[in-house]
Amino acid sequence: MPARSATRSALAFLFVSGLVVHSSAQKSAGGNADWAAYNGGLNGDHYARLTQITRANVQKLRQAWVYDTGEPGGIQTNPLVVNGVLYGYTPTQKVIALDAATGKLKWKFDSGIKGNQPVRGLSLWSDGKERRLFAGVMNFLYCLDPGTGQPITSFGENGRIDLRKGLREPWQDQSIALTSPGVLYKDLIIVGGRDPETHPAPPGDIRAFDVHTGAVRWVFHTIPRPGETGYKTWPRDAYKTAGAANNWAGMTLDEKKGILFVPTGSAVMDFYGGDRLGDDLYANCLLALDAATGKLLWHFQGVHHDIWDRDFPTPPALFTMKKDGKAIEAVAQPTKQGWLYVLDRATGKPLFPVSEKAYPASTVPGEVAAKTQPLPEWPKPYARQQLTEDMLTTRTPEAHAWAVQQFREMQSAGQFVPFLAGGKETVVLPGFDGGAEWGGPAVDPVHNVIYINANEMAWLGGLQAAGKTNSAGEKIYADQCAVCHGVNRAGSPPDFPSLVDVTKRLPEEKIAATVQGGKGRMPGFPDVAGQRLKDLLDYLRTAPAQAEDKKEMQAGAHADDPEGAKVYARRCAMCHGENRQGNPPTFPPLADVGARLNAQQVTDLVHHGKGRMPAQPVQGSELAALLRYLNMSDAADAGSAVPEYTFAGYKKFLDSEGYPAIAPPWGTLSAIDLNTGNYLWKINLGEFPELVAKGMKDTGSENYGGPIVTETGVLFIGATNHDRKFRAFDSSNGKLLWETVLPYLGNATPATYTIDGKQYVVIGASGARDSKTPQGSAYVAFSLP
């Protein structure tokens, strides 16, 4: 007998202007139930109306088939399953089609491009007569025939669009990749993209293309142009050089109302915003756009002037809240910080209280941190947000003592505390990988419960003056590589490998290919080519084997600054005199202001005014020039000019043996009632097998990839690093119902579907996130006997 969901799912087969819109567990030929869109449906709820696998029989699940890709690397793909065919990726971004009942390969599309970026899904369009499969391969969007895997050459340029085109010139130098699939609406495929986190980076435009021709139908500028709302939250003409504010996480669609929900990330540079002073709309926003036109309906900014890499990391989930006897169409947006924002879908207004909380100013010259940040008062955060000494590891006495010694040298004051320059490292909890991550939440729309898996790892951050570089290659390294690998090239293994002596470990051809094409979480830098690439390789080859610590390096200033003098004459001279002598006491002298005030204090006065002095809209390069000029009243002040600062490098807070330096949990799974904001249950998710062998169980671990939940109350999740387990929980109470060990780590979101009445659950597995585990990649499917 076919699963009951096949009948119910017929209701989800909607037609809008003659085009099919997919929902989870959609009915298809033969009475099967499909997983027809990324994460199961365009509404982002990861929910399946399937009933064959239940809480009573899930422990009987057995492996149904395995497809081994034959490739090392990572799979983060949530596959599509339509009409009995599974569509997915290999680690090198070859697109594959499998018989979803047997795992047998039907076809494989090799673009000839060796993709090595994560890619998390595909999009399948149909009007009931014709079908088109859209697949991102690095910076290209391909349109394939789902039956054969061959490009449909009438789309774009011979079946593909180069997404670098149309962002900024020269387009060949732009770096963009599709880590998440596009959203389909009527005859549009709408995409964002992953950008670098350093300059140069393209703007994070949201673009809609015609599914038939590939022509651009609309563009929304996340870095506004003159005349567009939000333009004044950036320095003047920022759109010409500012980058990112992009959607790498994926999007969600209200199909009925035609509203597209787009979460965006931070602007570049991620950790220093001296060249982008202001709130930086529409970075770190949840955007509601008219899916047909790209018109902005509303926005909600979760972080003002982000200098902590607090991107919105996942597509939001749509649901209908039941509040005070009313049904309110709502959207739930998880965050890296551990907050859950619940907003009215029509207006963007919070449905639980959100208040602006004051935070300290930055002490870094040239930086102006936002005075307040919007914090939800409810629900309570699903991850710890401030590390204190009593939270440090007790795994062993030695590990605890080591962690205490290290912690006492750090700054740990909770959320949104600006990083220091050249001083103490700042604790970031949850770390730069969340909190919530790209896998996203699952929502049970019947009971209005959201399920969020989260990391609880502490990371460290800090800034250091960029300083003078001794060669062109060193400057390229400082601009493009140091943010992850550190100014001293030491990295933070295993996530960010050391580049000290890298040319002795890897052939330069392989290094060059990685620089230009990216690998794993590293974006490509196609602008580093020709002489620039040669210069970088020369620097990596000839740099000292012992990486130099440049934390205390200070950037010198020019002896003169004509541009700063012009800004001063235009903005300040009328009151303070053309020679900065002032007219005390009404207008103080500025000749020695660099000896009395630091650049942060001067910046605050310029932007906010004081007494009879009005605020001045001096931003970006103008502000930097003015500060240099004011700090040059004599030679002694030359060193106090505002330098550009760089991130000191990603670094996890680990103990001396490489385990988290904070006490468990290191990863969790939470269930929250969306009507009330109350927690229903919370459990630790994941463990380290070697610690389990020593009696340290259920610690939780880092986890990547999200859950899915079924109508029968079964929640499936892989996600966990280290233990390779795929688990099923009772969604009502968090009780473990079933688990199995995968051949590789299950760092992906699973999918579920039915074929000929049999329900399957499938997950992508790969070893990329833990080199100590088996290496390889596969799709593994399970079913009842």
UniProtKB/TrEMBL annotation:
GO MF annotation terms: electron transfer activity; heme binding; metal ion binding; quinone binding; quinoprotein glucose dehydrogenase activity
Heme found in the keyword field: yes
SMART domains: PQQ
Keyword set, alphabetical order: Heme, Iron, Metal-binding, Oxidoreductase, Signal
Record keyword Heme present: yes
Cellular component, GO, one term: membrane
Cofactor(s) in the UniProt record: pyrroloquinoline quinone
PROSITE patterns: CYTC
Domain Cytochrome c intervals: 468-544, 559-634
Signal peptide: none
Pfam families membership: Cytochrome_CBB3, PQQ
Family membership noted in the UniProt record: Belongs to the bacterial PQQ dehydrogenase family.
Protein name: C-type cytochrome
Organism of this sequence: Occallatibacter riparius
